[in-house]
Specification:
By secondary structure, the protein is mainly β. It is built from 4 helices and 15 strands.
């Protein structure tokens, strides 16, 4: 933890609201070849270029066709009752089921209109053989197949408190891109941290699924000192980390993670910070 920002900075003392590790441990080895953040961004670009093609190939299963048995089928503009209704499909007409998002289904009618229909209405449609169709409630497979997720986590950033929010998009079942925003609250300084991460999940179908992450961003520090005003700092950061995603129920999951940061300061000596966080997230 930093001391008050008064007088000259002592050797080995950091300016941020966090506690640093001695230079030359894990992250020095991990990022030894990445002297500046642009190098790490190049690595992220390579990872993304190798996964975009796979992401475009992550197609849904062959479309299922059903016919409307109710007087009409109501289409919403999005997967939720809060989205307005914009189109109805009359009894006897056929729709294709394009994809599912929890208890909502994206369907397309003969006129190429696409909209979202809830599970209750979809279970009143008929299969080509005239039998009713049934859909299981949203479960772990939806968690595995979900494209979007978002969440809130809190924990420790080098001895300071940190609260984070994030949103992520899955390029394919194994690789996702996430955008993070964090507030750091220390005894003598506050700050914020923003980053973009690539996450790799080797076994996404597991209920408790481990993942690895690599990312880069910016951290801003504002000292609280009122005796001698410290200088605000904005530095680039890079990190590597690992964690667990734990499916809970329906749309929700628990998430715990550890990240090890390098803060690329304007001084010759960079800083290393450890972060632990736990929280919850939802997928959609």
């Amino acid at each position: 933890m930093i001391k008050a920002t008064v007088g000259a900075r002592r050797a080995g003392e950091c300016d941020g609201p966090w506690r640093t590790r001695p230079h030359g441990r894990l992250l020095q080895r991990s990022f030894g070849l990445l002297q500046r953040v642009p190098g790490l961004l190049a690595v992220l670009a390579v990872l993304l270029s190798h996964t975009v093609a796979a992401g475009s190939a992550w197609a849904a299963d062959e479309y299922v066709t059903v016919s409307v048995a109710d007087p009409f089928l109501e289409m919403h503009t999005g997967p939720g009752r809060g989205y307005p209704k914009f189109h109805v499909v009359d009894r006897g007409e056929v729709v294709e089921i394009i994809k599912r998002r929890t208890d909502w289904f994206l369907v397309r009618d003969a006129g190429a209109d696409e909209g979202w229909v809830d599970r209750a209405q979809m279970e009143l449609t008929l299969q080509p053989d005239g039998q009713n169709i049934e859909f299981a409630q949203a479960g772990q497979q939806d968690f595995t197949d979900a494209r979007w997720e978002g969440g809130v986590l809190a924990g420790d950033f080098g001895g300071a408190n940190i609260i984070s929010v994030y949103t992520g998009y899955s390029l394919n079942p194994n690789v996702a891109v996430e955008v993070w925003g964090s507030q750091i609250l220390g005894n003598f300084s506050n700050g914020w941290l923003g980053s973009v991460n690539v996450v790799h999940e080797t076994w996404p179908e597991w209920r408790i699924s481990p993942f690895f992450t690599l990312g880069a961003g910016v951290i801003h520090t504002e000292p609280k000192s009122t005796i001698v005003q410290g200088e605000d700092r904005t530095d680039q950061v890079a990190h590597a980390g690992a964690g667990l995603r734990i499916y809970a129920t329906r749309r929700f999951m628990l998430r715990a993670e550890y990240k090890s940061y390098v803060v690329f300061t304007s001084r010759d000596d960079n800083e290393e910070v450890e972060e632990w966080k736990v929280g919850f997230a939802f997928f959609f």
